[in-house]
Each structure stands twice: as C-alpha cells, then as structure tokens.
Batch of 3 targets.
Target 1
Amino acid sequence: MNGFEKRANRIKEKILHKTLEMMRTTDPKGIRIADISKAAEVSQVTIYNYFGSKEALLREVFVDYFDKAVRDFEDNMNEGHSLKEKVAHIIDLEKSAYRDFPPGLIKQMLAEDAELARYIEAMYRERTIPLTVRIIREGQASGVISEDVSIENVLAFIQIYMNQYEALLDMADKSADRDKFLEGMVQMFFYGLSGKR
C-alpha cells in the first residue's frame, strides 16, 4: 500500500469512526453530512467521494462495525479458550454491540436498507451460524453442553432469545444495574437457572 492509499484509508477510518460516535447518540435521520464533515475535519465533498451518499456511509459504518466484531469473535474462537471464556467474550461483544446499535436502530436500518438486510442475512448464515454450531459441538465434546440437546434446539432457543432482546433491553434499562442485568440474562441463557458452569 503506497502513501496515498494509507492516507486515504486513515481519512476513511476517521469518517467511519466519527459517524459511529454520532450514531450512538443521534437518530440516523438526524445526522447530516455537514455534521460528519465538521466532526471528522474533512470536506463534505471528501465524504461524498468516499461513500457516495449518507445512506451508503451509514451502511458502511454498520457493516464495518459488525465485520470487525465477527473477526474479533473468530480470533477469540481460535485462541484455545474454554467454553466459559468464549461465553464471557460473547457477553462482552453483545453488550458493546447493543450499546452502539440498539435493536430498534438495527430494525430501522434494516427496514430502510435492503442491501444492508441482505448483508446481515448473509453474515448470519455464512459466519455467525457456523461459529455458533462450532461452539455447541465443542461444548458437547467437552461435556459442558449436554449431548441430549441438539444443535437445532440451541439455534431455535437463540432465535427466540434474540427476538425478545429489545424487550430485555427495556427491562435492563429499568433495572438498578443495566450491565449486570444483561450479563445475568446471558448467563441464564447459557447455564440455566441453576447457574451450573
């Protein structure tokens, strides 16, 4: 990569980073290219040259964020951690993701952007499900997950859980300690009411 490409990549990363910061506090519809331009200290023309439109920029922020999260998860999977350590890592990733992209925001973005919806579906099918299946198989091989529980059962349970995640976040916001509430829900999901680990 030559000097020009390195500089271009740094500028693009700065724009993505500043846009993500704005998405944490502002509805995407309220974000303007002028605001991003000011925060990233680049011209509006530069943003349009790199991304083409505000919608394409928001999509790339989302895609870049989740690509990095999946790569982080894949790296963690390959580092020889125990199932418990992998679950702890999943909890941390999940808390970060839902802080940055609450389910309501994700639903809104997917409803308004068919290309992003296709990306998420492909990511789920091609990368997330295989990683989940791998964790289940490793857990069964080590005796941590019962052999009586099928992969299909676990995947169905995950789907049910994720379909209710927005309601869980609402309950978490009303609790005394949001992070502790969410961690308890994820622990219960993985280890049941007995908390056996």
Target 2
Amino acid sequence: MNNLAEIKATEARKTLGLASHEAVDIFKVLHEIEGVSLAFMEMSEKMSGLFVRKGRAALIVVNSKKTLGHQRFTAAHEYYHYKYSKGAVSRVCPIRKFVEDNPEEREANIFAINFLLPEEGVKYMFFKRTEGKTPDISDIIFLEQYFGVSHQFMLIRLKELNLITEKQEKDFSKDVIKKAREYGYSTQLYKDTSDKDIQVYSPYAELAKKLLDAGRISYGKYEELLIEGGYAHLIFEPEEDTEGEINELEDAYSL
C-alpha cells in the first residue's frame, strides 16, 4: 500500500469485519451501520452524486439515471467524504475519469476502488475462479456480479492489477448485457434505476418515533416532524389492518 486512501479503505473494511475477498453492500453500510440518509433520484447526466452534512446528520444522494454498478461506486466515493472530509458541508461529484485533478476527489476514488475491490480479495477470487486458465468473459461477469460493481469498473481494476491485458480489456468491453443474460446472470447491475420512484433510506422517522415514545415531544410535534421530513404518508395513509376493516364495512353496506 502506497496511498493513504488505500490504507483507509482497508481499515474501513476491517472495522466492518470484512475479509478481503468478501463483497460489501455499500448501501447497507451507509444506511444501517453508519446511519447516513441515502436517497436515489434522477439528476443531471453530468453528476454521479451529492454529499451534504449538517451537524451530525449526513445525506448522500445518488443519481438513479446511472447504472446500479455505477451507483455503488458513487456511494463508496461519497462514503469517503462522509468519513474523512470533515470540513465539508456539501460536495457535488461530477462524472469524470477515475484519475481526478482535484486531490481530494482522487483520494475518494482510490478509497472507493479499494473499499469495493481490495487487491488481495480480487486476486484471490480471480485465481480461484480461473484456476490458472486464461480468463474469458464469463469469468469477468462472475467477478463483477460477485463484488456488485460495474463492468467498466471491474475491467479497469483487473487491468490495473495486471490480471488482464489491454487487449483483453478491450475485447471484454463489448455486449456485456447480452453476455450476462446468456450466462444466466441478472442484468440489473448494468441498468439504471430511474424507472423507480425516488427512494429514500433514512433513520429520520425512527428517531422521531423514539422521541415520541420517550415523551420528549408531543404527538403534534411528531406529526410536524414527519411532514417536514417528507414522511406525511405515515400519518395520513391508513394502516393495512385498518384499511381492510374499512373495505369490509364498505362491502357490507353495499349489499
């Protein structure tokens, strides 16, 4: 290791109890372990994501118009800003090459690469899969599906680690969706998620409920917090059981 960001990525994985060859669910790490609010929404094609901090609260926004694999790299990149860019209150991350002119953005990319695809783990899985044979496209697809990263990202990493040649990188770059389907893999990794509604994963509603249960806020304040936080549906939409009872009553009176 000859880069501080690489060391930080290794330490972050160790803190999470991950072996070098284990895949990491970056979305789960951010939301469930770090308590970071995570939102997926359509943004400009030129943007990958956005990081915002206010006090102890943090929000990461990921561009859903990018492929799922790309989104995971973006989330890992923003994870670096959350953990190590302590002075930053907001940061927009545009689409650029992996090697950035901005030193901090370059460090965030190096962190993301090593957090998602640690050298030791990639080599272990590569040689376990190929068993010393020359890799083919099915091996590349297996690896990117295993680690949950984009096809381009996997090819870049394998070339960087001298596991494939420049010619192989070029040859393997074609028709990945078609090839993944032929080999029986899901193609979700290679597609965007912009067809879905805006998705938000946040501990906000849970914290508000805990304050209410502890008697620290009134129910009126609880409702106000939910509405301000975009969780009005938790107040105004009937619970499933209640809705079922309402339907039963309507059916009874319609006879």
Target 3
Amino acid sequence: MSPSNFESHKSIIRNKVWSQLHNVALPDSRFHHDYSSFIADFVGSSRANDFLASLPTYQNAEVLFIAPDNCIQELRFRALKDGKTVLVTTYGIRRGFWLLDPLVISGEKWEIASMLDGMEKHGRHVTLEEISSSLKRIDLMITGTGAINCQGLRFGKGHGFFDLEWAMLYTIGVVDASTRTIAVVHECQVLDEKLVGEEWDTGCDFIVTNKRVIEVAGTSRAN
C-alpha cells in the first residue's frame, strides 16, 4: 500500500469509528465532538479503568506515564490514590512534561491535579534531563486513542503524540522495548482491520475497553 493510500485508509477508519463514537462519547468543553482535536471520554470509561487497575502490570507499577486524554483522567486520579507517581504531558506536548507525586501533592488536591487544568498548578514541570535523573524507569505507559485494531496498532487523531512521547522517553533511557503499553478505548473503537504500521508507530500490549481486556502478543515498538 502506497503512503498516500495508507493515510487515506487510516482516515477512512477514523471517520468510521468517529461516527459510532458520537453515540457514546462525552463532549469536550473546548472541542465538543471534534474527535480530530481530542481523545474523548466515553460512557463506560470507569469500567474500563477498573479493568485496567486489576491488571498485575498496573498493580506492580510504581511510575506511570498517563497521557492527557479525557478518557483516562479518572485513571490519573486513581493512580495517585494508589500511591503511584504519574508523569503526564500537557495537551499536544505544548508545555512539556509534568510530574504528579502523591507524596508531594496533598490528598485533597489529587483529583484536581489529575485534570489538565489542575496539573500545572499542583504538579511539577520536569525536563527530560530531570525525568532521566529522578525517575530512572517508567514502568507503564497508558494512552487513549481514536481507534485501535486487535494487533495493537493505534489510529489516533493523526498527530502522533503518543509515538513522540514514547520516542522522547526512549531516547533518555526511561522506557525500552520491555515497557508495557496500554490503550483505553470504548468497545466500538476496537477494529478487526489489519494494517502494517509505520516504523515510528508504538503498538499497545493491552487494549482495555468497557467490556474486556485484550492482550496483544508481539507488539511493535518505535525506537
């Protein structure tokens, strides 16, 4: 498949999923139902996050990267309540990485800190150098996405933010090919489409929906 046809096919897939997502997605205060601008929260995301929190890979993790997506805001809050350190980016990585440490942020502020409007007030801005020196290792990376197939290949908004976040953290040595990755989506966002990913695509080891957990074998990693 040529690059132009590949991108066209991915666009068709996104639009097909977005038409179904409109029935279960929660509108964003800034972008309403413009799924090309944000990753939506959805009916059933709490159940999906419960499934995720039951996984040993989450329970054993001490430091998590959790993307700034609407569907996993509740998970960021939960992780802080579970005593885990959370690394998150600002939306679009515009203002870099922020560290949410439950030992530093008081408990009554954890929920606000887990939100995009609150993390910059209660979290700590960290450079890549500071991440490398202070965290040493990120145990788990979690993201939302526009759609994903059963082989763990994501079809996001088309901006590649999670791939870039992975690449940045890989470059400084805090993640590697053994670092587990999880996508949280509504069941309608899981596809049977089979596509060959591009070299920078970062696949997911687990797909967690409001109905089930799918474990993926042989997931590709951008590096």
